[in-house]
């Protein structure tokens, strides 16, 4: 040690005292919170210990009241409407029970590893998506902004679906249900059935004409549908009230919104199993078609479903996990939530096919009765001989098996003129084979089946209340994926931001409650999220494994969890998952290119759906949705790469006063080899230090900028010390 080391130390200590005086001399006398803060100047080791011990209250960040509340929030976010009306359709379309094999494989390959990755970074850094990816790689900070934009796009139309469910819920308190029978039209001479309903069905007519009052094309606006406008307003009011206090308010609602759907699904399963034909539906669903499982399309659709079922890339997963304690076992959470999601999809599929089996049985019985009457007429007219009919057949109480026996005999005997007889084959499998998904399943097929239930209004109320809760659970996570990153980054009051966000979303969402609104919902669903989210998750994977470093990340996880995660995740994150995601991205682009961009329009005259291509302006909207969603990534990259914004201006760097210590929020961490664990998160990073924590006295009086939350945004420019080595900062 140099001879004059004690003198140097004394000088430095004097400088510390002077620096503290300078800092305190600039305090705002009206800032009570600042007056109570103290500047802790001591050994770095002591400060590190202080941060770790106080991490649970640091930054006064809200926390979950219990682990159960957090798990229910994640389950509520991941388990949504897609589990009820998308997974059963894919299962039916892609090989029945055989579809579960590729789904489970892809859940293990991309689902759980990527879900675990998002939980880990959110829990460790304790910031929303913007702060997390800004911290890991500032040049890829646009990932967080892209996630927010995609969340906003999805929230716009997702809440419209909740509004539709609210409308049906409100109409279910009457007997008979309003969609039970076709309406009658009266004129001066006679009464007749509404032609549009007669050509389709009562539930189809009610959906398109009574609920949506749909126009015949995207270009034909038709004005606002006032009933759906009120329902959309009610949906946004519910979301706003639930989210206005963040997890402190939404967390309590999760106990009902996340658990109630399981109660309803179990009730429907028990009731469905007691109905005629339900076992036929379940058998049809579980029967594996192994030859279909080998088709690439099946794997692509399974990967897409896994991806969206867990809410990857939205930012909601990161936002929810950011309110956890840092020693929470997020690996257990990732596996648990992923398998709860999977088993919920299987449960929903059993319920759907039990009910659809019952519906198919009713339709099949009607088919048998109608065609039996045709055979009797043909026997009376002499077109068919009585000798063809087996003696045990009784047409007054004929079964489906007996009818199919007669049908086969007539088909063989009257082979040449069979088509002219107009007889139909009444097979329950044919009805079950009609693939229905989305709104067609929820608001038409399932709704029609419930009209045949005893006490149908009760089951209708339960079903649509379940849809509302499933939708709200996903909406909470989606809105949290917008609110949390913005509040963390720009220090805006959460209550004000939530109200503004919901108001803006409601007014933009009015385009979805026009008479042509259903076509816009289809457009946003097809183009606003799929490709942008795939790109976002690929970049997330690259940021952690390539830029931050997979080895360093594994060490971080070991320090955070208290044990080393399986090497399985190492290889998944580094090699397999990125490769699968790239293949999925390419396949999605190819599929989008091969499929003509368009929508199914409802034609009133024919009472059928007809495919229409998007007009030129519609194509521009589709392209704009994809470009706008991913645009923040290259913008932030260029801005950071070319240093177009001076980070020292205070817009991106700030010093905030947190419980007795100054905390520096980093702005340029490029080349920082400090890990997430040993280096501090944005809320923990200590003020610049060099040996001891010494704050250099500024030559001039620093200018104070007041941040939106009343704290000092740029602090004392402690990073602006040209005479100090960069490594010490």
UniProtKB/TrEMBL annotation:
Biased composition range(s): Acidic residues: 43-59
Highest taxon listed in the record's lineage: Eukaryota
Chain spans, region Disordered: 27-60, 674-707
Keywords: Glycoprotein, Ion transport, Membrane, Metal-binding, Neurotransmitter transport, Phosphoprotein, Sodium, Sodium transport, Symport, Transmembrane, Transmembrane helix, Transport
A biological process from GO: neurotransmitter transport
Residues annotated as transmembrane: 70-88, 100-121, 142-169, 226-247, 259-282, 302-323, 335-356, 458-483, 495-513, 533-550, 571-594, 614-639
Binding site residues for Na(+): 76, 79, 83, 341, 470, 474
Main localization category: membrane
Ranges of compositional bias, category Polar residues: 696-706
SUPFAM superfamilies xrefs: SNF-like
Keyword Acetylation: no
One GO cellular component term noted in the UniProt record for this chain: plasma membrane
Reaction(s) catalysed (UniProt annotation): L-serine(in) + Na(+)(in) = L-serine(out) + Na(+)(out); L-pipecolate(in) + Na(+)(in) = L-pipecolate(out) + Na(+)(out); L-asparagine(in) + Na(+)(in) = L-asparagine(out) + Na(+)(out); L-proline(in) + Na(+)(in) = L-proline(out) + Na(+)(out)
Membrane association type: Multi-pass membrane protein
Subcellular location: Membrane
UniProt-recorded Gene Ontology molecular function terms: branched-chain amino acid:sodium symporter activity; metal ion binding; neutral L-amino acid:sodium symporter activity; proline:sodium symporter activity
Protein family: Belongs to the sodium:neurotransmitter symporter (SNF) (TC 2.A.22) family. SLC6A15 subfamily.
Name of this protein: Solute carrier family 6 member 15
Organism annotation: Gallus gallus
